[in-house]
Amino acid sequence: MKIRTLAHSKSFSLAAGVVAVVFLSIIAILLASHGTPPSLTVVVRSNVVPTLAPHTHTSADRVSDNSHGLALSSPTVEVPEDMWVTDLEITTENAPQGIIHHMHLVRMEDEGADADAQYPLFAYGQDTPTTIRFPSPTGIFIPKGEKLGIDAVLHNPIPPLGEGGVYKDVVITITLRGVPNGKDRNLPVVFHLPRVFDETTNSGRDATFTVPAGALHETFWSTNNPPDPVGTAHTFVEDGWIVHMGAHSHPWEGAERVDAYLNGARIKTYTSHRTDESIPWSWQTEGGIVLIPVRKGDVLTVSTTYSNPTNKPIVGAMGLMGVFYAPDPHSLIPPPYAFRWTFERWLYSALELINVRVR
Ligand SMILES: [Cu+2]
After folding, report:
1. How confident is the model at residue 105 (pLDDT cuts 50, 70, 90)?
2. Cα-to-centroid distance, 314 and ligand 1 (Å)
3. What is the pTM of this model?
4. Domain 189-354 is found in CATH 3.40.50
């Protein structure tokens, strides 16, 4: 009995040792894949808004209308060295976060350029998370000397639609944290913003559409008509990964969901909820890291679903999907990713075959 126990405990301690080694290896791999801590920081601060006043907002108003939204830009910030942005953070000074309707980080090609004309490197929406982190080995690559700026619209309707206070000296900021060249980031992400909008009433930069009176779970679609200057739908020109997604809609105007589709098959759904039930305007739409393999020629579209129980149309509804895409999975990233890409692509193709086309 004694001997058996001894033998048992020996094999047990050997097994425990093996388990411990495997466990520690997994931890080490997870830590390694988490990436080098950020060592570079660039902060872009908006111009100061001396007084942000509240206003009344109805279903007949758009955020982009004069006296509703307040357009805001920033002084230009020059990036001092090549930088791989690993995470982003949006903050507000002297006002609650909810006063930002949207904020774009843009390239200012020339001093004094019209920021609104630039395609954003990143877009934040009122209901989207205030921080973003990119999975290693991806990041936003910004070369030394790049000039960055903010292109934002503040919106401060009175409750229950928004905060509606009077705020002095309001500033909004975006903080970029990252690492220099030669660290563990080598796969640059590109931002796309497929969106739903009504081509008969606007160009897509405004990106609004009308929800008819009495609409019940009505779905509105992005178009897929080339040319595609503002990304109403996106056709991928290379194999790659979608590595991060998030959505913006107007749950306070009856938005129920935003869906993304690859070649017509739904790949992602975002819904909104209040972060604080006692605060009617505290809407949050979750977003985050995803790993969705895409193939050259795949088409990404978006839809959003609204209900409008009132007898008046809602003219400023929105539905957008922010997507970070990393091209070329084979030559730049480590073999396990390439293998996974091939496997998951095969899986997606199989799923597409059996999926009921939704469009
Ligand atoms: Cu909006």
Report:
1. very high
2. 13
3. 0.80
4. no
